[in-house]
Amino acid sequence: MARRSLRIRQRADALGDLSLQGAKISAHVGFNDTRNSDERTEEEKERPLKRTKKNFQHSVESSAKAKGVPKQFRRIRGKFGLLERLTKDVPLEIVLEIFCYLNPHELLRLAQTVKFIRSILMCKSSASIWRIARGNVGDLPPLPEDLSEPQYAHLLYEPFCQICNRECDNVLWMFRMRCCESCAESTFPLYDKKFLARQPPEFRKHRILPRQSVRLNGWPISIGNDEIAARFKAEFQHLQTPEEQNTWIASKKHELQVKEEHAHLCTLWQTARLDKREKEQENLLERRKDAILIRLAEIGWREEAEISSYVFSDYGLVRQPQELTDSGWNRIKDKLVKRLSDHKARRLVEEQRQAINLRRSLLEKEYNEIYSASDHREPFPSLGDILSDEPFETLISDSPLDENMNGQFFREKLLEYLPSFIEKWKPVKMQELVEIMRKSIPEVTLSDLPLATSIFRCAECPSNIKMHYPQMFYHRCCFRDRSRPWSSHPIVFDESGSQAVRTILQACALNPSTTTIQKLHSVDPLIECTTCHLSSASHYGGRLFMRWPHALVHSSDHNFSVNSFGELTEKIFACEPPIGYGNRICCVHCHEELPHRAPDLRAHLLEHSEIDVKKIKGTKLEEIQEHWYWDPRCALRFLRQSFRCREALI
């Protein structure tokens, strides 16, 4: 049975007037309020209270509706209104003593819970409680003269925009309101010339209208307040004499100065408060993260969470500013483990892919060095051929991720593996070329490939590039930048090119059945296209001469003359340009790509101690051919240039 002491009854009578005053103040600050439960009419007091029917069929929801419980609490089991009964039963001086240990934010929340507490806090006689509560907050600016204690607390702590009711931390201190950036942009005008032009001249002269600095889209601007401006204008127009107007303007200027100083203090306090709150939330997030890591360690998932820190730390169930409880852990445990498990599977796949790419790049680097030092007059497998072979495919794809594979490791493997691989690979690919030739010449054999008459072309190149053995093993259409296995699919036998070379060989008294490409390079016959002859009247006039590689790619229906120039031969040779820088030659001794001038070649040969450079007497590349060869990687059309000779005109 509840206590009913004389002191409690006297306090209840004394609070009658207090509740009326609190209701008036609450209406002033904008809080919703209803009648106090003690203010029942005489008719309500005389009406007998109905006993609640104890019927099992009545649900919790229907009984809650009968008691007027808010909708969001209707499914909650238990008793309501305990806080109100507690404050009514506890002596008032104890309640007021408790209030003195709170801050304005907590008092504001209490005033929104129970009507009885609200009636106490919202009356003017409770101003001392709010004043003490403000003193409990360090560095809080003093109460401004134009706000009451509850209004000031509402401005300081209520985290909602007063226009759209969304959460925001932006306070317009000069206007005494909270407002988000979007509402500030759409509600308030810019404090500019247009705004001031609408005000009386005295306002513009003395600057008495408050303005607020805000940031919109990252840019600082100043906004005004039409409502305050209209109120000031109405007050100013009611003044009768110039003395009254001057006094009013002076007071407004003083008020504006005081308000600006107070707004500056509030801005500093708000910034410090938000920074402190942010640090508290970060500390709380860190404690929650550490607590979850401890739980994950117990089930064996902490290591994955630390490896995938961004996946773990940024997860919504982890990044919550609240302490971790046992029930909270049980709610997020399965989802968190599933997230980490899925990410681990993706991470391992990605790590495997990155490891394979790294190994491929190391292998490719070592392969390119070995390939550059190889004899290019012989076929050499592409990187794709090596990677598609079982030993290296297994080595790169199936080796453990933690196995150390550096460049030296791959170089040793390649030097060990390549000789045997080339020994198996080369005959197979050469036989493919023989089969291509047999479609046109059935009786050819493997020994016919190096012959000068074995001319092929690429069916995929728009210009049908002509080539001889072993140029097709370096042609890009056959392996796509050496990243794929070499294929003879684009290669076809060129009958017209073969016949053109046969004609050149016969003109040079060489046997087409035995003359090789190297022999033809050594002979290097001089050829004239008689079809392209131009008279000396032309700017480009003269007879057109070329070497055999250019003749091979020249128009096949033209007429040629080979090594039949008699006494004019010396004049023609004098008109021929030297081997240009666009040509590519390789050293016979080290197979390195060389400069295209004899002096540069002599300088390179000095690096080879086994060669006596003093015995090399030639000053032209043609005179020291035993030390270099044409690079098969270079297309035929780039080996030599055609030229015209006016001096040879008859």
Question: Which SSEs are present, and which pair or pack?
Answer:
Blueprint: H1 6-29, H2 42-46, H3 60-66, H4 82-89, H5 92-99, H6 104-111, H7 115-121, H8 127-135, H9 149-157, E1 171-172, E2 177-178, H10 181-187, H11 193-197, H12 201-206, E3 212-216, E4 219-223, H13 226-237, H14 242-298, H15 302-307, H16 309-313, H17 326-372, H18 383-387, H19 390-397, H20 407-438, E5 455-458, E6 466-468, E7 491-493, H21 495-507, H22 517-523, E8 526-534, E9 542-547, H23 548-553, E10 560-562, H24 569-575, E11 585-587, E12 593-594, H25 598-605, E13 628-630, E14 643-645
Antiparallel strand pairs: 1-2, 3-4, 5-6, 5-7, 8-9, 8-10, 9-14, 11-12, 11-13
Helix pairs in contact: 1-7, 17-20
Domain F-box: 84-133
Organism: Lentinula edodes
InterPro entries: F-box-like_dom_sf, F-box_dom
Can you give keywords for this protein?
650 residues; alpha+beta; F-box_dom; F-box-like_dom_sf; elongated; 25 helices; 4-stranded antiparallel beta sheet; 3-stranded antiparallel beta sheet
Explained architecture:
InterPro entries: F-box-like_dom_sf, F-box_dom. Residues 35-49 have a biased composition (Basic and acidic residues). Residues 30-61 are annotated as: Disordered. This protein has 650 residues and is an alpha+beta fold. Among the domains are: 80-158, no CATH class; 368-451 and 458-492, no CATH class; 585-630, no CATH class. The protein has 25 helices and 14 strands. The protein has a 4-stranded antiparallel sheet with strand order 10-8-9-14. Strands 6-5-7 form a 3-stranded antiparallel sheet. Strands 12-11-13 form a 3-stranded antiparallel sheet. Strand 8 (526-534) and strand 9 form a beta hairpin. Helix 1 packs across helix 7 and helix 17 crosses helix 20 (407-438). The longest helix has 57 residues, at 242-298. It is elongated and about 130 Å long. The relative contact order is 0.04.
